Every structure is written in C-alpha cells, then in structure tokens.
Amino acid sequence: MSTATTAAVRPAPGTIARTRALTRMEITLLGRNRTTLFNAIALAPLMVLLLMGVIGDRTDGAGAGVFGGALLTTLVAFGLLFVAYYNLTTTAVARREELTLKRLTSGTSSRREVLFAMSMPALIIVIAQAVLGLAAVVAVIDVPPLTNPILVVLALGLGFAMFAGLAYASSGLTKTVEAAQLTTLPVLMVTMLFSGLTLPLSVLPEPAQVIAELTPLFPVVTLLNLGLTGLTPDGGQVTFVGSLAEAVVPLIVLIAWTAVGVLATRRWMRWEPRR
After folding, report:
1. In a domain, 5, yes or no
2. With the CA atoms of 159, 117, 95 and 124 taken in that order, what torsion angle do they form, in degrees rounded to the nearest 10?
C-alpha cells in the first residue's frame, strides 16, 4: 500500500485529538456530580442483591444460571433504555438549549466528534452497571460460564449505538428537557412492552408476536439471553454453536435498527435551540 493510500485511510490526528479532548471534558462533567454517578452505577449490583434476598429459593439448583442470566439481561436492557436513550435525549436537549452544541460545532470539532464524546459517559455507566451486576450475580449464585460472550458484547455495543441514535433523533423533536418525559414515552413504552421482559410474547396473537420481534429492544434481549445462558425466545437451551444460528435474525434486526438510529439522527437532530 502506498504512503498516499495509507494516509487516506488513516484517521487524521486532529480528529483523534479533538475527540479525546471532548470525551475527557464529558467524563469530567460526569465525575463532578458524584452523587448521581454513584446512584447510576451502584443501582445494578444493589438491585441484584435485593432481588436475590427476595427470591432466594431460585438461586439454588439447575435454574440458578437461567435466573441469574435473566436478571442480568433485565439490568442491561433497562440500562440501555434509561441511560443510553432517555438520559442521552435529555442531555442533548440541555446542551442544545444552552448553545453548547452550537458553540462546539462552530469551532474545529465536527458534529460526529461531538456526538461521540457526548455518548461516552452514558456508555461508561451502562458498561459499569453490566460489570458490577455480573459481579453481584456471580457472588451470590453459582453460575455456569457464559454460553457465547461474543453475543453479549454485540448486544451491548449495537444496542447502545442504536439507542444513542434514537436518543439524538428524539432530542430534535423535544423542545425542553421537561418535555423529554413525553417525547421519549412512546419508545420506552413500546420497547418495554414488546421486549419479552415485562410480558411473555406467547400471550400475544401470532401477528403481534411477529411485530414484537421487530421492535428495537427484543433483539437485544434475545442476544443477551443467548449469550449469557443459551436461552432461546421459545424457552429452549442451546450451546455455543446453536446460539450462533439462533442469533442471525436478531442480529439483522438490531443492525437494521442501528442504521435507522443513524439516519434518524441525521434527519431530526437539531444543533440550535428550538424557537
């Protein structure tokens, strides 16, 4: 490969430096509010320990691993919904109305760099919740090894990218931070209802089940269950190889929703205050 070609495909040092600086600024802002940071991160392991105390009889025997995996799946799914989606929506709205977004993009930073940096605190919180939640589960339950760690990483990474994109798009439709409680409600309600976490999809008519499997959170939940315990949507159990086959359709749906999030951000994200 020629020197010119190498330079063309390599990211410009300025871009990396600016993104790093913006990310450092966002993380610094996150660290200043230590109470909020502690509550956000400590919520996962505390919830695990609380539920283990309430449902102690399920933590023994063959069903312990499945129960622990279901608990972790719920924690990660709700973390993506409320940290990656709702919190990022309110953050983007607040930064826009304070003219922070306009000021940042008026300089040398690109919009992509600003969005990437703004999402980093939320990603850190989601990962911390998942890791601490896993540690709490392992400390209380004798869980087997993960069936497919690759699917867990894909669910977490693509799920975060998808909800971040939907959050930025939702912020463009939201006039104030307070209004985010209303503008984010449809996504929160639909995704939770059809995720398979709050309502068994088997109770729905068959056409509704097909629609539910195409909603944003369902493929994330499916991939997490497959990766953590090998549990399929119909209640079956698969090995590593079987989980790969079961993951094809959910992965396609999740990638499609991630692309929708990117396109929606380009279409509806606003960089100046709404008047």
Report:
1. no
2. 50
Residue 139 lies in a domain: yes
Q: Which two tokens stand for residue 41?
A: 């991160």
Contact 186/174 with Cβ under 8 angstroms? no
pLDDT in tens, 133-166: 888 777 777 677 889 999 999 999 999 999 999 9
Residue type, 110: S
Q: How far apart are CA 197 and CA 218, in angstroms?
A: 9
Give whole-number Cα distances, 94 to 102, 105, 109, 122, in Å: 12, 15, 19, 15
Q: What is the pLDDT of residues 69-109, one digit of tens each?
A: 888 898 899 889 999 999 999 999 999 999 999 998 888 88
Instruction: Report d(CA 158, CA 75) in Å as an integer.
Output: 16
Closest CA to 271 of 54, 100, 132: 100
Give the range of the structural domain holding residue 201, as residue numbers without chain letter: 36-52+62-268
- Its pTM stands at 0.88
Q: Nearest Cα to 114, choosing from 224, 256, 236, 19?
A: 19
Angle, CA of 56, 62 and 67, to the nearest 5°: 50
Is 126 within a domain?
yes
Residue positions counted in the chain: 275
Domain count within the chain: 1
**DSSP states of 132-162:** HHHHHHHHHS-PPPPS-HHHHHHHHHHHHHH
Q: Is residue 29 part of a domain?
A: no
Placement of tokens 């998808």 in the chain: 162
